[in-house]
Structures are given as structure tokens and as C-alpha cells.
Amino acid sequence: MTKKIEHSRLNNGMTIIAEPMDVASVAFGIMLPCGTARIEEGCAGAGNVITDWVMRGAGEFSSRELMDKLDSLGLHRGSSVGTYKMTLSSSMEASCLESAIQLYADIIQHPTLDAEQFELSKQLALHELAGLDDNPNQKVMLKLRELFYAPPLGKPAIGYQQDLSNLTAEKTREIIKENFNLSDAIITIAGKYDFEKICDTISSLFDKPQAPFECNIKKGDRKLGYTHFDHDGSQVHIGLMVEVPPAKDKDYYNIMTAVSILSGGMSSRLFTEVREKRGLCYAIGANYNSLKDRAGISCYAGTTPDKAQETLEVTLAEFKKLSDGVSQDELDRAKIGLKSSLIMKSESSMSRAASLGGDFTLLGKVRSLNEIKEKIDAVTQDSVLEALQRCNFKDCCIVSIGPKEVNATGIL
Amino acid sequence: MDFKHTKLANGLNIVGEVNDSSQSAAVGFFVKTGSRDESAEINGVSHFLEHMLFKGTDKLSALEVNAAFDRTGAQFNAFTSEENTVYYAAVLPEYLNEVTDIWCQLMRPALRDSDFDMEKNVILEEIAMYEDMPHFDVMDKARSLHFKNHPCGNSVLGSSDSIKALSAAQMREYFSRRYSPENITVACCGNFDWDSFCKLIEEKCSSWQSGSATRILSECNGSLEKVSIKKENLSRQHICQVWPSVSAQDKRKYVASLLGMILGDDTGSRFFWSLIDTAIAEVASVQYEYLDGAGAIYSYIRCSKENYELVSETIEQELEKLFKDGITQAELTMAKNKVLSTVTLKNELPMGRLIEVGFNYSYLGQYKTIEQEVASIKAVTAEEINPLIKDFDIRKFTQVTLSPAS
Hints:
The structure holds 2 protein chains of 2 kinds. By secondary structure, chain A is of the alpha+beta class. Chain A has helices at residues 46-53, 63-72, 97-109, 115-131, 136-149, 161-166, 169-179, 195-206, 252-263, 269-276, 308-321, 328-345, 349-363, 369-377, 381-389; strands at residues 6-9, 15-20, 25-32, 76-81, 86-93, 186-191, 225-230, 236-244, 284-290, 295-303, 396-402.
């Protein structure tokens, strides 16, 4: 079922990675080395301003003309600012690919960057940040990630109020100039396309010489332990995160399996213990989250104040219990769950284009679906246990937002 | 793609769309019941019942159900709306029968008192969770205000009070009235064998007793009232507007859907240019939603307290302009292209097809191919949209605003 993954590299270093699929659509993502960790100190949130600003006119087109052009192609557009890369993406009916790439070549290389438009982009970013206060469940996970990875790695894409307020058009232009460097950029494409033709188009549009891009990101000091933010809402929103090996580690598949046992399906341990047996939460779940050299299992639980303490204790106990081992039945369920979700995700061009980019950024290569399947098949009870025993779940980062604090002292 | 339909003697409809090139299949049970089919006394029972189906049968415990599902690697869940309760699973073809078999069993649940009491806690937590999501809260309140005495205004979750007062016996009574086979459509899409699918459904579901679940339909022009509620813990202004619109049965469904997109799609719409591009609001979206015998267009807007008046004036001007001048050909073309690419992307996944095929049959007893759906969208003209703007006077709407107290 897996088709060949295709690669090409332009003279300036820009990488093209593509995977053909039997579908009528195509999706692409252009990843630029302008992630949160690469944007300098004091400018947190600039990435969000930039993704909006570059769409406000490019090449010969005004803001309105550009938007109309993109909308006429029926594009489903997206943008995200990750730790390392900023991604501008689109999915569409396959025949629109060439025209879409042409417009994005202008957006990335010839954005108008008008100063008046900058103020609007900045206002939107400030509003979005202010809106986070009304989304405690989202805010708790951003705070958790920030403390767990520590700046610059954990810096939230949504930014800080002070940084955003101080940001100027001039400064932001400099950030764009420095970080929209094609030598470290990637274009991923998945779906229906002609590889040779699209490579020719991309070469002709993007192949201008680039200075090599160097960027060393230092690791900051993490803040483990417990942090609480007051919010007079109905629930206490709890986030917790523990360290595990990153995606490039040999234990990656063992850890993925362990996370699936912890929180993959409805028979997973957290769902069973926290929700089914005790009725403590509606929303409870854990995910694996990896950067290049650091990774964590992050967990969210939302619960009313009276149940918050028990929720935290039961949840944390399940993390610790993992290193006692996993049953064969749990292991089998986790493996089939991982494989099924992999195959089903591969049916969507959007999701496949995003996976290609994620892999390349974290691993420097793209894994084929068959390779992933084989690695999942190779996971055993023993291999999971060995991997888990190498982890230290005692060093935990806990954040809560809500009307009541939890007592984490005895637990940590 | 190949459409199939059959009906069991007890009234259960089975529909399928076979696509051999899919990697997976999706199966769903579409029960025509939701909060509009509840009385005030049992408000929230449809959604609570949806949770209770996962608690198993006389032969299966909740934990056994969860393990049985997870052994198939399926991505499964359920959702409840004002008028539908849908149970679904996306799964690799080799596990389809196993998953379908579990669903068939769960459709005749045990509804045990002990499970009911435990799950009540989870439902109350879910209600609390949505209270902390002003986006959801404002839309829920606006729907209630708009539909007022029309049953579509009933809250899907119910209130903490209605849930606390609900008994397992009331739920069992509701179940026996609403989950009869003629009120359910079973659908399957993707890579599967129709004959063996039907055989399994027949074997498992033929014994279900027919009933007479009915629903009285009525149109709703909406209360058109405006309410502002202050909440202590908010930092932004959350606004939801509701306009009356056409029903699921109305041929103008696609017309209404395109109108919603022209008014408030995420990009390039009237609200986008007047509210988002100008940065006076950070979120502005509009969506048409069809209902059985009724319909509505909803907006959700979020902005600062300071900008609220400006946002309201801008919206008023935009609606006035739309009412007076109608839409342009260029914006219609753009809206169509966006809808068409959505259709292409959605239909690539068996799960996307399942929802389309299931609802189409459940509401209208119809099947529409992707090509027919595309043709219906392409056929919409500005001459159809403009009268709709006048018929349901776009300048008049129901509105709820949640605002920060200080």
C-alpha cells in the first residue's frame, strides 16, 4: 500500500519531499526555519504576526487580490508556528496545485509587508493572546509545555503580551529576512501530483541562491514541580508532563506503545481508572510530544474542584504503575490501535503531508508506513518494560488553572 | 462507488456505499433522536443515553466493551445533537464485522442502575467542562433563545439539575420509545462486502421489536430577541447570532450553505473583510445548519470589550448592505470553489462519506453520489441566494452576548 516517497533538493538547499496517493486531492506544506525557538528573545509571538502579515499582499497583488486568488482556487489554508519551523499549508483539488504553489512563492519570497497592515496583524495576535484567558483548557497545556521544555524550546507560539506590544514592523521584517531562509526550508506534498512537473515549477520559482542557515538552539532550564493559576471557572484544568526519550531514540516505538496503553483507547488505563471506575472526569487523556532532543508524555484532566485532588493522584499513580509492566492483552490492543490509526491517517492527503514534514524535521528523514508498521510489530512486553524502567516519572511538571489549587507536595 | 439499500422486516434501514479503493471502512448507527424529542423533565436523556450504550449489555460489562472495541483498532465514538444520536467507527476492513457486531449488541443495552449512577458523574463533569468554554456556552444559550418554545431549543446536555433528577427508569422508558428499528439507519462506507454486512445486521438486529417513534415537525422563525449576560471570569466578548433558515427537506439547502459561507467563512467572506482583516474582532465565523423541518444560520464572534460596539455597528452595516445589494457573482464563485474542495477532501475518507450518506438517508430516504452533490453546489445561482436573503430578512436575528463583568 505504501508508495515510494520521492525526494529532491534544489541548488539552494531547499528540500522537496512527496508521497503519491490514490486520491483526487493534494496537500502541501512549506516549512520555513522560523519556529518559536528560532525567533529571538523579546519577540515571542512574532511568528503568529508573520503568518498573518505575509498573507496581506505579495508580489504584484494587494491583500484583497491575493486573498481572492487563493479563495478562487478553493484552497483550505492553514498555518502553524512550531518549535523549529513555521508551516504555511494548503490542501485542494489536485488540478490547482501549480497555481497555488505560484502564489505561495510570492507570499514567501515577495511579501509586501506594508507597515499599516503590520499593525492589524499585530492587533489580531494580541487579541488572540487575550482570548486564551477564556480557554483555560487550552491555556493549561500551553503553560505546561512552556515550563516543561523551558524557553526557547517551550516558548508558546501565541507569544507574550509584553513582547507583542513592543514588536515593530521593522523588527519583524528583520526576523522574516533572516529566517525565511530557503536553504533550510522543506516543501512536503502528498496526494495526486506529477513529481517531475511540480519539481520543475518549484525549482523555477524558489531556486534563488541562499546563504547557509545556521542556528543553534540552546536548551533552557526546565521548571518542574507544581504551578497554579487562579481562574474562577467551573473546573480545575490539570496538565502534567513527564520526560521520555525523543522520537529519534531507539525506544520511540516502545514509548509510543506505552502511551497507547496509558491513554490510547477506551480500554486504556487512564480512561478506565479515572473515568470509568471513578467518574472523576469527562476529559482525560495523554499524548506523546517530541522535539529533536527532548520529549514528554503530556496529560490533561478537567474536573470539578472537589474531585481535583483525587484526579491528580489517580492519574499520577497510573504513570508510576507503568514501570511495573504491561499485560500481553494491553500490548496487543495498543499495537493494533497504533497500526490502524497509522493506516487510516494515511488516507488523508493533509495528514500525510504534515507527517512527512514532522518526520523530516525531527528525524532528518521520512519513515515509510511499512517501516513504522514493522517497528510497531517488533515491540514486546519486555521491550516496553525496559524502556519504561529507564524513564523517571518522578520528575514531573504539573500545572493547574481553576478556582482551587491541588496539593502536589506529597505526590512529587 | 456502488450504492446499496435494503430494509429489514422490522423497519431497520441498511444503506451502504462500497468503494474498493479505500484502505478502511466506516460503520454508523444513525438514531433519529435527540434533545428535541425530550420533555423538560428528562432534558439531557438522549445524550446521557448515548454514554450509557457504551456501558454494555446483559452479557457485556463496560470494561469488556471497551476492550472489545480496542482489540479491533477502531476509531469509534458517538455524538448527540438536537435531533440525532450517531454511533460510529472507522476501522480496517478485516475488523469491520467484529466492530459492527459490537455495535449491534450495544444497540440493545442493559442500562444498569449502577452504571447509570457512576456515569451521571461524568455527565455532570461534561456540563462543567462546557461552562468553561464560552464559545460553546454562548452558542448553546443563543440556540435556546432563538428556538424558545420550539423543541430544537432544548439543551443537548441538559442542566445539572435535570441530570441530577433523572432516573434510570426514565431513561429505559425513553430508550424503548426512541430506539425502535424504524427510527434507525445503519450505514457503511468504504472497503467492505455488502452481502456479508447485511447478513450480519440481519442476524443481529432482526429480533428488535418495531415501534412507532414519531416526531412532529414545525418551522421556527426564531424569537429574534437579544440578550446580554455578564460573567465574572471572562476577558473577551463572545457573541452568537442566529438567523432562521431552510430545513433539511428544503431544496434550497445548498443555497443557504453558500450564503453562510459568503457571509462568514474563515477567509474572504463579508465578516472576514469587515471584522478580521480590520482586526476589530479575532474570530468571526458563520455556518448554516439544517434541521428536521427547520433550519438556522449561526455566527460566532469574539472581540474585546472595547470593540464590541464597533463590531455590532459593522455587522449591522454589512447585513444592511447584503440585504440591499445582494451578493456578487465573484463571491459566489469563490464560495462554490471552497465548498467543492471541502467536498473532495471530506469524501476521500470513508468516515466523511459515512456522515453524508447516513444523514442523507436518515433525513430524506435518499442517496446522493459525490457527483450529484457537486452538481447541486455548482447549480446554485445568485438569483437563488438573493431572494433567500430577503425571505428570511438577514437584518433580523436572535443574539446572545457573553461579556466580562468588569
